[in-house]
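Lab meeting prep.
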Amino acid sequence: MASSPRNAPWSQIMMTGCPMLVNQHEHSHINTYEVNTPQHSTHLYASDHLIVRRGQEFQLKVTFDRPYKPSDDQFAVEFVIGGSPQYSKGTYIPVSVAKDRQSPWAGRVVDSTDNVVTVGITPAPDCIVGKWRTYVAVVTPYGIRRTRRDESRDLYVLFNAWATGDSVFLDDADEREECVLNEVGVIYHGAYDDMSERPWNFGQFDYGVLDACLFIMDKAAMPITNRGDAIKVARKASAMLNSHDDDGVLVGNWSGDYTYGVAPTSWTGSTEILLNYSSSKTPVCYAQCWVYAAVFNTFLRCLGIPARVVTNFFSAHDNDGNLKTDVILDENGRIDKHRTKDSIWNYHCWNECYMSRPDLPQGFGGWQAVDATPQETSDGIYRCGPASVQAIKHGQICFPFDAPFLFAEVNSDVVFYSRNPRDGTLEPVKVNSSHVGRMVVTKVPGQDARRDITDQYKFPEGSPEERTVLEKAEEYGCHREKATPPEADVELDMPLMEVRVGDDFELKLEFNNTSDQARTVDVYVSGNVVYYTGVTSSEFLFKTPRVILDPKKGRRVEGGGGDYMRKLVEQANLHFIATGKVKETGQIITSMRVVTLHTPKLSVEVSGLAKVSEEMMVTVEFTNPFKFNLEDVYVRVEGPGVMPPKYKHYRPHREMLRWCTEAHYPQPSVLCSNGTWCWLIQVYHFTRLIDH
């Protein structure tokens, strides 16, 4: 018999007459599985236990040793969570079916046939989320008798985006379907005007993933009583998904050396990462921003919190509380690389989760930005958010949590300073207020397409609303460059280029003289291989042309090419920056361009028609388009409910790679695959499987 939880109100109940006892072998959730899981949208979870969502009724059947008599018999279904359950803390919940006995969770008799009673139970919409132990307590003349502990009767209670009383209620059915139930997604990377897609298997319903997500909260020693608060859960998880402070899930690595783990570009899904972490109890190697965001997305969706991955193109990393990214030029207009320390990430991924914010004024609920990538500490811990996206847009950065950092990521100015050769002082010569936060995107619900959500983070550049927001942010301590250097009468632009890995190219510079006089411009052109974080790996191009422009005329100048292949790093982009000094006026002109290197294609084919419960063959093919061998080629393929992660390693590879492997098809799904060459070149593909 289980010991009585403390503060249990049932310890005072007595009754007379023949006692009714529970049949220990018949009290089960299994026979109500087909009723509960479709109604609770938990039918996709691979689990041996019942999984329900709070704020919504579920049913279970209890078999007694005789027919139930409502007028004489008293019983309760008890739910217990944590190591020291207490009624006053909401960790011990006795649910009575008697109308005169109130309970935090509603209970009623749905049906009573012979010895079997079907009980309907509605967990409170703010109850603790986690794995609950279940007992049935019967009042007898000798006291309360409880069923013995049986792990098979444990059930999981999750957040409920379908329940109006839940803090994560999301009224948009399409968004709810995408942000809670979709197991696969697309993460965008590259450049805002030349985006690439990375498929990802979130796998929130895979066997063991739910337990792994609960283990993360256990590992963090998160109080059980806080686990029904979506705000606290999201904030705790933003710390626990990285390993910096607390042996969290993922080890970050931007060094390019992944000898002791898996290269971030090699992962195709979250399942393996979470299962490895929960089984080994040690952090998994390695991750970069999109891996943190993807695994965080799995965590949130698995627990029932609507979530999506967003990508911010040209994302500022501001760690000194201002809204400036400083570029230092010497007296000739050339970038001083020794004194220019700030960098702008070509893209950065974080998450949004949907919830109400009762801790904030009305209107700041809804989508909240959270970020698990360890960039800066918040209250001494590497974490970020949740911060109201509405608060970020309106400059209300005083609201918790970490709104100033996120505000700067989408609103910083790029300020060019010229060093005075006489006294060494810096003077602003050009301010680019539109470069950072150029575009914020996420996946369209129900489609493999992208959605521009920049307007949810900021007002249009130069609008009166934007000026008001920036003034508001300055009131709360975010400082920006006040100087407004005069616009130069010579314009400089670099047109977009599409470059495939290995291709030669010719950089072009377009000048336009808007003045009535001739202009002479001394130009410095630098081409660099950069990591996606904007950090320069090496310079491969440097030119110093002098350009003479006639009045009111334009001119196109060839800026040259360069041998970048020998200097490639993982996820490399080509970053070009041109600065020029107009001889007649001393004005500085600048232009920047990030070029995404397009990679070869990987193909995935499935043999025959995909049919439920049948085996199928998956063929992965890749043709080497280069004139040299590819060394250490790793191929990885997986699909939720279809195929666990599978790998294959190829050493020197010159022409076509072909790999055939088996998969099982229990349900419509998606196959995600990638190939990696020496961690430098990654190719991706995903194939949607539809039942025939």
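Slide two material, second protein:
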Amino acid sequence: MGSSEVSIIPGLQKEEKAAVERRRLHVLKALKKLRIEADEAPVVAVLGSGGGLRAHIACLGVLSEMKEQGLLDAVTYLAGVSGSTWAISSLYTNDGDMEALEADLKHRFTRQEWDLAKSLQKTIQAARSENYSLTDFWAYMVISKQTRELPESHLSNMKKPVEEGTLPYPIFAAIDNDLQPSWQEARAPETWFEFTPHHAGFSALGAFVSITHFGSKFKKGRLVRTHPERDLTFLRGLWGSALGNTEVIREYIFGLWRRAVANAKSIGHLIFDEGGEPEHTWLTEMLENWTRTSLEKQEQPHEDPERKGSLSNLMDFVKKTGICASKWEWGTTHNFLYKHGGIRDKIMSSRKHLHLVDAGLAINTPFPLVLPPTREVHLILSFDFSAGDPFETIRATTDYCRRHKIPFPQVEEAELDLWSKAPASCYILKGETGPVVMHFPLFNIDACGGDIEAWSDTYDTFKLADTYTLDVVVLLLALAKKNVRENKKKILRELMNVAGLYYPKDSARSCCLA
């Protein structure tokens, strides 16, 4: 969908439909290698929950082991929230080479380095945009430091392997923060926003725009101003903008911003070549004076004809970041549905901007994006990387599905409470209709014994990357891999079952499960 128009159609976008159809051929070959014969390929979706850097590393471990065991090739969809999106996107930027990806991860956490100068340059560049928000700051100054990566590629760069069917179709989740009241009141499906290599938009409305035009300005369904496609660093910041407690994030961002103001002279030296101005004391004084002014005065445009270029850009960056922090503004982007006549919901079409944030603020795993019947998912492998109750996502999804009459396995609350006290490594949930759900808690008694709480403390959601030594990273990778490896037979059994259930021709059978 490279069109400059907004697409509002029911069902799958044609590019996704074609990619999924091509993927079926690869899935059938993978099933055959797993000694499961079927005439048609069941649709399997792997979901990764949020959980910051812990989810990022654990999700990489899951994908690596699934690749090793031949299971990843049998997957049609990969979908993630927050930290899992960082891992999933890395799979595509590395062309599916899990060995290289894992080696790169270990290398990044061995050298303990972060390119502050480059991150700051990217943030200052982003601040020149009219829609700059805390998401830009968070992406380039925080997430890049957490992951020690600053990817400059784009979602549209992932099209080739997806369209050829050599890798699963990826879906990255966010929510529209302006619709949070609707979510809190009625769990409104239109709250959810999705990104793929082809499109971005509201799946519940069937309203999408080409991924290359996400962030561009639309009016009445037509493109009126083109903006460059946002890079993966920014999108990772958007998808993972709810790491931990809101107050912790607020304090962390204000702390980083104050340091930027207090050390403006040092930052200036990082940005400018040695041939630049040797002294920037005037800049420090200006910034210090600016922080004492009112918000109204801060928002007034700064006019200084004698100081242009990089120094004025630095000043604008600090000013804009301060304003966004005062307003607590995140994920600002042009609303591609603005004044669109095909949208009945006037709230959706009357807003000039959307504010997209981490989907974990709604449900910490992307069930709502793979459950629509248009995607025809038969089996869901849900990997939960939560540090708290690993069944909270099941509770929240059950409530969501009950409200909207979406088929989903029903589990009694008392049973979920019992499971959460000593979670096992795998739970298989089945309903009369709808997909089979296999749920895998990261921290479980099978792998962690009685030390679940200690594991959770070691990998706290808001733990900074500096505390992740190579040994800590390797242990988490090994734990995530073990959860896949130890449950391979169960996964194969359910693959065989859904192949036989949805395509019953006596041809869906297994030769490896006795």
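Talking points for slide two:
The two ends are 46 Å apart (CA to CA).
The first strand starts at residue 7 and ends at 8.
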